[in-house]
Amino acid sequence: MTKKIADYEKYKKKSLMILIVLVLAWLGIGLFSLAAGSYNVPLTEILKAIVGKSEQANVNTIIYNLRLPRILTAMIGGTGLGIVGCVLQAILRNPLASSSTLGISQGASFGAAFAIIVLGAGVQGSAVSAVKFVNPFLISFYAFLGSIAVSFLILALSRFKKISAEGMILAGVALSAMFQGATTLLQFFANEVQLASVVFWAFGDLGRTGWREVIIMAVTVFVSGCYFMFSRWDYNALEVGEQTAISLGVNVNRVRIMNMLVCSITAAVIVSYLGIINFIGLVAPHIVRRFIGNNHVFLLPTSALMGGILLLVGDYIARMAITPVILPIGAITSFMGAPLFLYLLFKSGQRK
To answer: Is the Cα torsion angle 235, 154, 249, 244 positive or negative in sign?
Structure first.
């Protein structure tokens, strides 16, 4: 017993150290990203601008109007996607669970396409070069509705048809294909400017958000994060098995439905503002799980931080690879996430 206590204390110290390192990396990469761009801003001037003591008006404009909202969007959005992915993998007991595999992203894409093509929210001018979102709020609203529609369909199947966790994943895959087909059908009837608008939205862009969107995302991620941390012991119980969790007093169906609802709302808010961001929620929990294990007391916050770090790194690559051109963040995260996931998969197979 004494050895087990000593081992746990050792594990706790190691996990806390990893958590501290990730917090510092999250903040450090965010600060470094503020300095990166076509206009070089010294770190000292950035710090002065943040505390409101910079005397250079152009620096204040660049930091507060352009870079800071974008960097905070990456930090908060990645954090939200990371922790949502971790929770979905826990409650569904499936390592492939994420907002993308459950069809939430595809639902958002359909909602955005509907707003752009049917409601004309994305067209200004008559040429592809003049593509501009006339009503970004309407696009975000319908993208949110699309995400929530997918989530509620899955929850309805779970509640009334009593499908299993595996069934929920399969339902998500089926709904994903259905909404993707519906989006393709809308694109078929769109003109070239509308089509360009839909494609541009689906690329993903961290520069669409202003301070209002940043605050909405921050509040959503903070509230949902608190709820997830409050439920951390339920996830640990589910990790052992459903029957064990039930014997420990966990209402498995209630935990699964409530957490699915919170995950869906959080992911829907993020995706509706940013567009399709792939692999962050899928890969982030797998990376930290190699070092932390399956204890959700530490796995939840570290997955959140790793998600933020991955999106920050992806945004840096997107902005600096072919400056001043900004590459689609969705494509960058896919290029980053897919090889990482394959590497983790092969390493896991070798250990077994």
So the answer is: negative
